[in-house]
Amino acid sequence: MNMDYFLGIDCSTQSLTAVLINLSKNEVIIRYSINFDEELPYYNTQNGVFSSNGGKVVHSNPLMWVEALELLFKALVQKNLPLNEIKAISGSGQQHGTVYLNNSFETTLKNLDSKKSIVNQLQKVFTRETSPIWMDSSTTKQCEEIRLELGGLEPTISITGSNTFERFSGPQIRKFYEQNYDDYIQTSSIHLVSSFLSSILLGKSSPIDYGDGAGMNLMNIRTNQWDDKALDATAPNLRQKLPPLVNSYDVVGKISPYFVERFGFSPETILVAWSGDNPNSLIGVGLTEKGKAAISLGTSDTYFSFMKTLSFDMMGEGHVFRAPTGDFMSLICFKNGSLAREAIKDKFNLNWNEFGEILRKTPPGNFGKIMLPYFLPEIVPLVLEPIVYRFGFDENDMQGNVRGIIEAQFLSMRLHSEWIQEQKEEIYATGGASANKEILQIASNIFNTKIYQFEITNSAALGAALRSAKSYYDSINESINWTELVNRFLKIQDNYIIQPNNKYKELYDDLLEVYRKCEKFVLKNGEDPKQIRKDFVKKYFAN
Ligand code: ADP
Ligand code: XUL
Prior knowledge:
39% of the residues lie in helices and 20% in strands. It contains 22 helices and 23 strands. Strands 1, 2, 3, 6, 12, 13 and 14 form a seven-stranded mixed sheet that branches. The chain starts with a strand and ends with a helix. D-xylulose (XUL) binds at residues 13, 94-96, 134, 167, 215, 276-278, 298, 300, 302, 331, 333. Residues 12-15, 298-299, 338, 341-342, 352, 431-433, 435-436 line the site of adenosine-5'-diphosphate.
C-alpha cells in the first residue's frame, strides 16, 4: 500500500528533533532528537549556546545545526525508516537567530559531494562564525536607533508588528554592521535559522516565510514585504542580502540530490518553506481557530494565540506574527523559562519528581512569598541585568523558591497577556516542561482556564510535518482543511485535561494585583507593595 509519509524537523535552542508522520494512518511513526550538548560536545555549547558579557551576548554555531541534521538523518537511516517514501518535508527554527554567508554559499550548496559530510564542505561559507540567537540581549542601542528612525514606538509596532527587541534580527544585523563593518560588506546573504536549514535541504538559497520574517523588525506586517523604511533604518544595502519572502505554505522546491544520494530520499520529495518554532507550534497544538491559546514551556516560555484580525500590543511587549494558515498570531516571549526553573531545581539538588512533589505540598499563594525571577536578562518585562527579587523569603527557603518561581512565571504570563483581547476558553500546553502536571495545574489555577496536555511535547516538529502534508495535498488538488488535518493528530481522548480549581480563583486574582505592584515597585519605581502583600497574607494565611 502507498503510504503518505511527511517529515517535520525542529532546530530548537537545545536540540534538533524529527517527527515523521503517516497520514494514511494518522499516526506518528517516530520522534527522534539530537541533543546539542550531549551529542556534539566538541562545539562546547551549554544548553545549546555560548554566552558572554554576563549573559547579554548569546550565540550558537550554525555548523553545529548542520552536523546535527546529518546525525539525525543517519539515525533515521539506521532505524530503517522509509525515507524514500516521504512525500514532503518542512521545518522549524528557533526564531530571530541570523546566519551570515558569503558569495560562495550558493555554489557550495549546489556542488556538494554526497560522499563527504556537509559540515566539512561548508567550512568557508560564513562571514560570521557564530550566530546571535533569540537569547541575546546586547542590542539595546541599535533597538533605540531603529525605533527612533521609524518615528517612535507606535509607527515601529504598526509597521513591523512589534516594538524593536534586542533579540530580533534587524537590531542584530545593525549591530554587526556597526561593529564588524568589513564582514558586513563581505556578507552576500543573511538567513534566519529556519531559512538557512531549508537552504541546506534545498541545495540553494531558500526564501524566508512570512511567519519567521515577522520576527525581524524588517517585514511590513500588513503587506508581507520587506519594508524600505525598516531596511534603511537598519543597515545599508540590506535588501540585496535578504532572501525573498514567501507564504509559509509555499513549496520552495525539491530536495537536493545530496540527500537523495547520501540518505536515500526520493528525488520527488517536495520542500515546504520552513518557519519559526512558534508559528509551527501554533499548528502543532491545533490553534487554527479563534478562542484558543497555547503556552510553550521550552527553553523560553511563550504564550501565543491564533488571531483572525490584526491587532497590536501598543505597550510594546507582545508581537504579532503571520500564522502559517495565512492569518495572524500573537506571541509573548519570556526568557526565564526552563533554565530559570532548572536553576532552582539544581540549587536544591532536586529531580523533576521531587520538584513536582513540593509543588503539590505547598499552598497556592505561597504564604505571600513572591519572587520576580530574572535569573537571565528578561524580555518581558524588559530587565537587562539578571537579578532575582524575593519578597518575604530568602534564597535558602526550598519550598518558597520552588513554588515561588512557578507562581511568578504564570502570574507574569497572565499579567503581560492582558492586552490580547480575544477570549480564551482553553489553553494548550507544549514544550519540555509541559510534561510536568504539577506545573500545569498551577498554570491552570492562575489562568482559571482548562489546560490540555499533549502526549507529544515537541509541537514545533509536529506542526512542521503537518504543514508539509497540507501543502503537499494542496499541490495535488486534494486539499484538506487545517482544522480537520490537525484534529486527525490531536485527538482529545489522547490528551490529559487539567481543570482549574475554582477554590483558588479569588486568591490568584488577588495575588495578581500583589504581583503587579511588586513588579512596578522594582522596575518602575512604583508604590511599595508592603501593605497589599500584608493584606493578602492576612486574608489567606491568617492562622
Ligand atoms: P527547546 O525546544 O526550547 O530546546 P524543550 O521544549 O525541548 O526546549 O524543553 C527543554 C526543557 O524542558 C529542559 O530545559 C528542561 O528544563 C525541561 N523539562 C524536561 N522535562 C521536564 C519536567 N518533567 N518538568 C519540568 N521541566 C522539564
Ligand atoms: C520567540 C522567541 C523564542 C524562540 C526560541 O519570539 O524568541 O520562543 O523562538 O524558542
